[in-house]
Amino acid sequence: MKKTVGIILRENVADYNEIPLYACRRDMIQFLKKYNINIIGIPIIFGNENEFDKIKETIDLCDGIISPGGSKIHDIDYKIVKYLHEIDKPTLGICLGMQIMGKLFNEKVRTKIESGKHYTEKEYVHNVRIKKDSLLYKIIGEETIKVNSRHKRQIPYTNLDCVAYSEDNVLEAIEDKSKKFFIGLQWHPESLIED
User: Fold this and answer.
1) How many CB atoms lie within 10 A of CB 71?
2) Gap between the Cα atoms of 171 and 153, Å rounded
3) What is the pLDDT of residues 115-157, one digit of tens each?
4) Beta bridge partners of residue 183, listed in sequence order
5) Angle CA(29)–CA(32)–CA(38) in degrees, nearest 5?
6) pTM for this entry
7) Pairing of strands 111-112, 153-154
């Protein structure tokens, strides 16, 4: 049976009169299409009191949710991730999506990363070491992988399971081992998949 994945659409400012667009990166869509997956975009309209109920209805239609990268965290992001965690909906947080997951479970602020090697458009920039007792390790099957990196901030700690770190000790992956699939990645796997 064909699976349906919901993608939280992040607000981006368009060049035309700075009108916001709700979008995700093209490589995310291309990756999911390769696996014949139905895609539902979930836009977040800020300031609408009934918005969260509509989002929950859409989430309930999906087999899993991706909370992708972006630049700004909004209060509704926490409500969405909390709901996903409560209903045990398979969830993948990427970059900002992982930071939202991490912040939800520790109340700490994101901190700037001083090292320039965590924000670059290059494909592979540093190694990540994955703990062997993690679901992420079971999926990837390798203890050390090379990843891309497009983030300027990090979550220094979270109450979720911290399962992967970069060579300079930046937290790169988190998960909740009590859930079916609740994983956050600091890198962008959708941009690393080759044809």
Assistant:
1) 12
2) 11
3) 566 666 667 778 999 999 999 999 999 999 998 887 777 888 8
4) 92, 175
5) 95
6) 0.87
7) antiparallel
